[in-house]
Fold each of these.
Amino acid sequence: MPLINPYEIISKSALPAFRAMVSRRLTEDHGLTQQEVAMRLGITQASVSNYARKARGTMLNLEADPNLVKAADQVAQVLASDKPDQMEALRMMTEVCDYIRFNHVMCKLHENLDPEFKTEGCYACVGGLSMDSAQIKTRIAA
C-alpha cells in the first residue's frame, strides 16, 4: 500500500487547483494576459494556459468552499494591483494550503487516490497534533 503524504496532495492537486482559481480571476476579472498572470504567480505561461483549458488544476473543486473562493478573490486582488505584492500573495497562498489541510478539504481525493487508505479517524493533516488541535482557524476564514 503506497503512503501518500498530505503535502504531496497539496503540491500536486490542491495548490494547482487554487492557482487555477487565481489565474482565472486575473485573466477574466482583471484583464491580465497569460504572460502577466504567469509572471505574477511565478509560474510559466504554459501552466496558465493549462489552467485556462482545464488541463491542470481540476482534481479538486475548491470553488465549492466559500472561504477558498474569498481567498482566491483576495490573492487575485493583491496580484492585480499596479504594484503586486508577491510576498503577501505567497503568505496568503500558504494560509490557503494550511486551511485545505487542517479542514480536511482533500480527504475524499486522498481516498480516491488510495482506495485502501481510510481517512476516517486520520489526523495526518493536523501534523500529528491531537485531534483537539484540528480546529485551527486561518485568517482567510474570518
Amino acid sequence: MIYNVTNKLNTDIMKANMGSIDKTIRVIIAITLGILIYANVISGIPAIVAGIVSIAFVLTSMVSFCPLYKIFGIRTCKTQKQNQQ
C-alpha cells in the first residue's frame, strides 16, 4: 500500500516538464548570475535574491522539473506520445 502511494506521488507530482534547451538556458543564467555575484557587480539584497534564483535554476535543471511550470501547465519537453511517433 505504501509503495503504491509513494510511486503514484512520484510519477504524478515530479513528472519531467522541462526540455533540454530550457535546462541549458537556466544553467547559463545561473552561471552568469554567479559570476556577477562573485565579481561584486551585484551585491547586497539583489545578490542574495540572484543567488537563490541561481540555486533554484540549477536544481530544477538537474531534476528536469519546475514547480511553477506545473502550476501554470507549461511543458517544454516532449511527451511520451511525441517520443513514440
Amino acid sequence: MALKETLKSMHKYLECIAKDLKKAEKGNKAASQRVRTCTIKLAKVSKTFRKESVSEERKTTKRKTTKKTAKRSTKRKTTKRKKRR
C-alpha cells in the first residue's frame, strides 16, 4: 500500500466509525458491532501507516543529509591561530 492509499482507507474507517457511533449511542446494537469491527480494521491500517510514514521520512532525511555533507566537505574554515610566547 502506498502512503496516500493508506490515508484514504484511514479516512474511510474513521467516517464509518463516526457515523455508526451516533447510532450506537442511541442503543443500536448492530451499529455497536460495526464500530468494533471498524476499529479493528483501523488499528491494522494505522500500523501500516506508521511503517510507511517512518520509511518515507527516512527517505527524505537521507536525501537532505547527503546534500549537507557535500556542502560541508567543500567549505573549509580559514582561521588564524594565535602565536604562543
Amino acid sequence: MKIQNPPRRLLATAALTAALVPSAWAQNAPSPSDETVLPVNATPGFDRKAADEAFDFGRTSIAALQEFALQRHPALQLVDDLTDAERGVYVQAGLAPNPTLRYGGEEIGSDGSAGKHGISVEQEFGGAARRRLAQEASRKASLALDWQRQVVATKIRNDVRAAAYRLLIAQKQVEFRQQIASVSQAAEDQARSLIAAGSLSQLNFIQLQNQTREAKLAVTKAKNAKTSAQKGLLILLGAPNGTIEAILDDPEELGGEPLDENATLDDILERSPEIERLKAQIVQRQAVLNYERAPKREFSVEGGVSYAFGDSTTLASAGVGVPLRINDRNQGNIQRATAEYFAAQRELERTQLKLRAEFAETFAVYKSAREEARTYREEIMPSLENFFEMSQQAFLSGEIDFLEISQARVVYIESSVNYLEALERLAESIVKLEGALLERCLDD
C-alpha cells in the first residue's frame, strides 16, 4: 500500500495554525546549547590558586585587612551564588508554558486508503497574573538575600577586627613576658655575685633560677598564643598560608568616648542588617502567600487541521479546555505559605529578644572592661612599674630579702596579665556593640 503525500494546502494550513501561537512564548527561553559540566570551585570570581597563595601583608592596618577579606571571603561568594540562583528562579517564574504540537492518524488502511492525518497545536492561556506574582515573590527573595549579604559582610568585618585585636594583645603579652624574663635573667646573673659575697643563700638562688626558667616558659607560651592568634586571623582573611609582619593599630587606644547604653541598643534594633533581613523575609513570605492565594484562571486552546486521503477533504478542529477546581484548590500550599508567613514574623520577634539579651550581657562586659582597663592603664600599672623597678634594685642592694622581691614580682605579673585580659574583653565587647552583635562568619 502506497501512502500518498499530503497536499500543500494541508501543510500551509498547519503552518498557519502554528503561527497563531503568540511569539512571546518562544522568548526568554534559555539555550541548552552549552551543556559543559562546571568543575568544582568554578564560582565566578573564585580563584583556587589565589586562595592558596602565601600573601605577605607586611605592616598593615585592621581596615586594610577587613577590605581584603571582603574581596575574597567564600561566605560572601556563597550569598552571591544564591542570589544568582534566585535570579534564575525569577526568569523561570515569568516564562509562559510552551505550546504543544500533536500529530494524529485515523482510519489508516481503511478501504485501502492512507486514512486521515492531522496536526494540532495546544496552548495554555490565562496565567500571566500568577506569573507576575511568582516573579514578585522571587524579587522579594532577592532583596532578602541582599540583606543577608550585608549580614555576612558585617560578620566578616567584626570577626577580622576582633581577631586582629586578639593578635595585637597577644603581641603585647609576648613583649611583657620577654620583659619579665629579661629582668629575671638579669637578677639571676647579679645574684651570683651576692652568693660569692655571702649575701644570698644557695636556697634563694635556686628559687631565683626557677623563677627565671618559669619566666622563659611563659615567653614560649605567649609566643605560641600569638602564633595561634595570627593563624586564626589569616584563616578569617581567606589566606591561611599568609604572613603578617605587624598591625599598626593600638589596642590601648580603645575606649574613647563611652558608648551610651540606650542609644546603642536603639541603633542595633533599628539598623541591624539581621533585623532588616528578617523584615525583608516577612515581605517575601507575604508575596509567596499572595501568589498561592491568587485564583488560577488558566485555560487551554487547541486548534488543528486534518486531511482525509479517502475523499480528499481537509478538516479543521478547535477546542477549549478549562480545569475544574474540585479537589485541588491549592489549599495545602496556601496553608503552608500562611504558616511560613507567621513563622517569619515570630522569627523577627525572637531575634529582637535575643539581641536584647545579648546586648545586656555584652554591654555589662563593656562597662566593666572599660573601667578596669582605664584603671590599670592610668593608675595601677604606672605605679606597679615603678614599684617593681625599685624592689629589684633594693633586692640587689640587699635592702629587701628574696621573699619580698618574689612577692613584688608576682603582684606585677598578675596585674599586667589582668590588664591585658581586660583590654581583650574591652576590644571584643566594642567590636560586638559597634558591629550590631554580629560575629562568627564561618558558622553560617
